[in-house]
Input
Amino acid sequence: MSPRALLELDNLSTHYVSARGSRVVRAVEEVSLRVEAGETLGIVGESGSGKTTLALTILRLLPLAARVTSGRLLFEGEDLLTKSDAEMRRVRGKRIAMILQDPMASLNPLFTIGDQVAEPIRVHEGTARSAAWSRAGELLKAVRIPSPQTRLYQHPHEMSGGMRQRIVGAIGISCGPKLLIADEPTTSLDLTIQAQYLNLLRELQRAHGLALIFITHNLGIVAKMCDQLAVMYAGRVVESGPVKEVFRAPVHPYTRALLSSIPRMTDRCQRLAAIDGQPPDLAALPAGCAFAPRCPSAFDRCREAPPMFRPGDGRMARCWLAAAGAGAGKGGAI
Amino acid sequence: MTMRSEAVSSEPVGAPPRFDFIRLEDFPLAPVLILVGFALVAVFANMLAPHDPEVGKLAARFRPPSWQAGGTTGYLLGTDHLGRDVLSRLIFGARVSIVVGFTAVIVAGAIGTALGILSGYLGGWVDQVIMRITDTWLALPALTFAIFLAAIVGPSEMNIVIILGAVYWTRYARVIRGEVLSLKERDFVRLAIVAGLSKWKIMARHILPNVINTAIVLGTLMLGVVIVTEAALSFLGVGVPPPKPAWGLMLADGKRGLMVGYWWLTVLPGTCIMLMVLSANLLGDWLRVKLDPQLRQL
Output
């Protein structure tokens, strides 16, 4: 591995603590991940598995009840957790940008597109309005908005959903960030627009050398978009590694179950494979492996919490089954 | 600039024009005409008034309106106990009512909107402090509180504006805070946070423009209340100081004459107050429906 990744999460935990401290929800627990410059990391998991909390932790935009209880968060070698609010503001939008779950609602209905695309440029670079506007025009061109000069003067309600989303993308890349976090950016779009948008993101990524963290529960998108994959379950990363490797030979039973639950056109008249049971309550996790109660191949040892094993080059899995497999190197931190 | 016109012409067919609602059938024409009428009278008071509103001829006291027996065309609406022309005083009184009314509404709106945005957006202890002050303020009876303040600072037009602003900001603060609470959960505010804007910038650039509509509607509804309160304060002698012509003051001066049949000294300024307040309320009601954030579609 290269000595310094663009983003490195080391044993990071984020908990939501109730007002009297009686209830602790372990939304993100001991997560270690690396994102190299220009690389795409896909984070998949069920609803409530901690994906969005992880993204908010990276940007330090957690709600008041949340606490980062352990770990380090290194971005370009700097620990973001020790930065002041003012310093974080200079990171957000400028070095790390984010596209929200519903880009349709992400634009202020009262302002023109030009004002909104130019806003981060003016804030972060102190550019004059006219100069920022001409940059905004170029950005609209970069995200394939037809007749960008006209569109600059229009309001969000005059655009289609796909266009608004591309504008949100343009806002995301406006200050040339190194890392773009996309939190389920395509869930509100129909399929053809989704495909267009994903292609656009790939292009932007290549053109600007962006690293991308793609949060989704669509494994198809992960296969298409991502280099690395991290599967989250109950706040923990249960398996991570290069997408192709993980898809070819998943180690963790949860990853296997997720992959086998993708419907395929070739299966005729078969029931969809589902994972029995419910994800656990994050405030009352079972002792040992959180997936064990639903796991088809659980055995005695699963009552003990499994550490991170390394079943292959660049791969990690938090499962005792991996210990039996190829030369497991023990140890939580990497 | 050429681009702007291009943008307008390339609008998709069927897009609703910005100010479409002006042409709607239920547009309150009469109230608007009355308000505009009063406003014009106030602006051109110097030209319209036939006499000096503050100086009268004692020889011409208590002249009835011109159409009654004893009236003269020199004093169309009669004269008061000091022989001052009632018409001229009504005309200049419109100026007082409108100037005091509008500036007080703006002062109250500015205080209330600012506190409402701070309270709603910052939350936490700021919210607690501002809202508890608002609760306390609302528990005080408005008119009594205004009289109390007026008694302390003394009567003048400027003081009236400040007092009315200080008394009536609470309604803005409450309503605007509620609006901000819902606005700050909207995704465009989140995007602004993610884009690294400071909270002050977000409040000024994203929250404020979105609550201005509500503030204007509230202001129109408040206009009537403020004008009545100003008249009441003047009537009680703690408002606009005599001899300035204010409608409330004219009522106070004229009330003694009511028993002996000098009806024009009270009925006429009373009618003016009533017309102005009624028009402001009707316009405000209509605006409230038209610009209600829930009904408004952008």
